[in-house]
């Protein structure tokens, strides 16, 4: 049970409105260059920027991960990574977006194509 009641602030409302306007106007279209098959879905961008990047952290030189017992670089990339490799911050971001989109998002959408459809308001009635 929360102790304090959560109330919206002017700043919070403005931030949410800005995000929604950006999405509605196609503000995320700059990410489309990373998608190999279609437009970049905002869910991928959100997962990458707010979930994976802060969790994994950025390492520009490959290093041995003693827990996974494999070489990794950037934001935890392990595919094709070996000792002595280096990447730029831009290369790491590009690699992560492409990997999440192609190896995970695309596979989920193949198995569950209805996820791409907006929910129907009438289905809830």
Describe this structure in words.
It is built from 3 helices and 2 strands. With 125 residues, the chain is mainly alpha-helical. β1 and β2 form a beta hairpin. The chain is extended, with a radius of gyration of 19 Å.
Short description:
This protein has helices spanning 10-24, 42-56, 89-111, and strands at 59-65, 70-74. The protein is mainly alpha-helical and 125 residues long.
- The global form is extended
Kindly report how far apart the N and C termini lie. 30 Å
**Poorly predicted regions:** none
Q: What is the helix content?
A: 40-55%
- How many β-strand runs? 2
Strand order of the largest sheet: 1-2
Q: What would the average pLDDT be, to the nearest integer?
A: 77
Percentage of β-strand residues: 5-15%
Helical segment count: 3
The description of the largest β-sheet is: 2 strands, antiparallel
Over all CA atoms, what is the radius of gyration?
A: 19 Å
**Class based on secondary structure composition and strand pairing:** mainly alpha
H/E topology pattern: HHEEH
List keywords for this structure.
mainly alpha, 125 residues, 10% strand, two-stranded antiparallel sheet
Summarize the SSE layout with pairings.
Elements (H helix, E strand, L loop, with lengths): L9 H15 L17 H15 L2 E7 L4 E5 L14 H23 L14
Antiparallel strand pairs: 1-2
